Amino acid sequence: MAMGKYSLGSKWYYAPNKVAPIIFIVLFFISGALHAWQTIKHKSWRTTILLPWAAALMITGFALREAGAYDTESLTYLIASVVLIMSGPPIYALINYMILSRILYYIPYLAPMHPGRVATTFVGLDAVCEVLIGQGAWRMAATDMTDAQRRLGKNLVTASLSLQCALFGAFGLMAAQFHRRASRANVLSQDLKIVFYVLYISATVVTIRCIYRLVEYIEGWDSHIYKNEVYFWVFEAVIMFFNTALLNLYHPGKRLPKSNSVFLARDGITERKGPGWNDERPWIVTMFDPFDIWGIVTGKDKKTQFWDMSDEELERLRAEAKRNKRPVWAGALDPFHLWGERGYLGKYLVKKPIVSSGDGVTASDSVRKEEGKNEASGDAEKV
């Protein structure tokens, strides 16, 4: 299976191999189907639902590459293939973020940051990478554009890949720090250890691929790497298939809890069910302060520490969380939860009725006094 060499008139610079895309279409299709089956089997929707999607992006990209191999003068096939294949690996990275987030939900008392913020912070930055790649890859691949336009595309992709490498580095450090804490606390089961090892290997594979692309785009479209197809098949196709096969062989959905509400007690054995680790701060605040530094300074973060509560307290919190749970339609119409009695803006617009009782005491004062009496009587009954 010879790799393509320089071909006159080809938008790819070479004659793309016609056999390799078919092989990888089949391999990624099998892998994607297995991912979908295991996600359904293990009910790991929130953690691994994007695995089939990542495979689908790669499959579509290889299919367009195959079409381009028979029409090497078509710029459309080249651009679409490059954009789709380059969009797949960041999705695999995103899945790694979600896996770590689920582990932090499971062992919350050792988490370096709110588990939900792992997903939103890294995924938000990853989305920026996707936009930069989408805007840059097609410009650089478009051989009919001016050198200035292609340089802009090169700079956009380089910026995206540099940001991805920085994200992978920060992610790896966070995972390693948490892993060390959990090992010292002796709360890691064999399943969790396997998940961590797979996570490290997967993150390393995606990072190697990212470095390859970074070198390719820094050197430019006239470089040896860019004009030789063999590098693409080794450092993009083969290495990413290894990644997806690894995640199939050691599927995280099999080894992680099915719900964010399930957490491990400090004894490292008992599994308990809590209310879930919610973050009541406005979403914009969580983006700029993912570690809740302000909450740590003021002590407000103590309110979220449900893992040391009794079973009765956890039951009460679960019931309260169930009452306050927003319906699906409300989440769709108001995704940032701005309005309503508990909305970030709406709660300040709700007016409490103030009715004077004639002696200068308002109705709200009376309610507070009555609540105080009820609490006092309740304490007296306990005595």
Structural commentary:
By secondary structure, the protein is mostly helical. It has 2 domains: about 20-255, Up-down Bundle (Rhopdopsin 7-helix transmembrane proteins), CATH 1.20.1070; about 350-383. The protein has 15 helices and 2 strands. The chain has helices at about 20-40, 45-50, 50-70, 75-105, 115-140, 145-185, 190-220, 225, 230-250, 250-255, 285-290, 295-300, 310-325, 330-335, 365-380, and strands at about 260-265, 270-275. It has a two-stranded antiparallel ribbon with strand order 1-2. Helix 4 (about 75-105) packs antiparallel against helix 5 (about 115-140) and helix 5 runs antiparallel to helix 6.
Describe the structure using short key phrases.
2% strand; elongated; disordered C terminus; 15 helices; 383 residues; Rhopdopsin 7-helix transmembrane proteins; mainly alpha; two-stranded antiparallel ribbon; 67% helix; 2 domains
Q: Topology, pairings included?
A:
Blueprint: H1 20-42, H2 45-48, H3 50-70, H4 75-106, H5 115-141, H6 147-184, H7 190-219, H8 224-227, H9 229-249, H10 252-255, E1 262-264, E2 271-273, H11 283-288, H12 293-298, H13 311-324, H14 328-333, H15 363-382
Antiparallel strand pairs: 1-2
Number of helices: 15
Enter the CATH topology name of the largest domain: Rhopdopsin 7-helix transmembrane proteins
* Corresponding CATH architecture of the largest domain: Up-down Bundle
The CATH class label of the largest domain is Mainly Alpha
Q: In angstroms, what separates the terminal alpha carbons?
A: 85 Å
Show unreliable segments: 355-383
Mean pLDDT: 80
Strand percent estimate: under 5%
Please state the structural category.
mainly alpha
- Biggest sheet strand line-up: 1-2
How many domains, as an integer?
Answer: 2
What order do the helices and strands follow? HHHHHHHHHHEEHHHHH
Shape field:
elongated
Total beta strand runs: 2
Radius of gyration based on Cα positions:
26 Å
Helix content: 55-70%
Assembly state here? single chain
The biggest sheet amounts to: 2 strands, antiparallel
Subcellular location: Membrane
Membrane topology: Multi-pass membrane protein
Transmembrane segments: 20-37, 49-65, 77-97, 156-174, 194-215, 230-250
Protein name: RTA1 domain protein
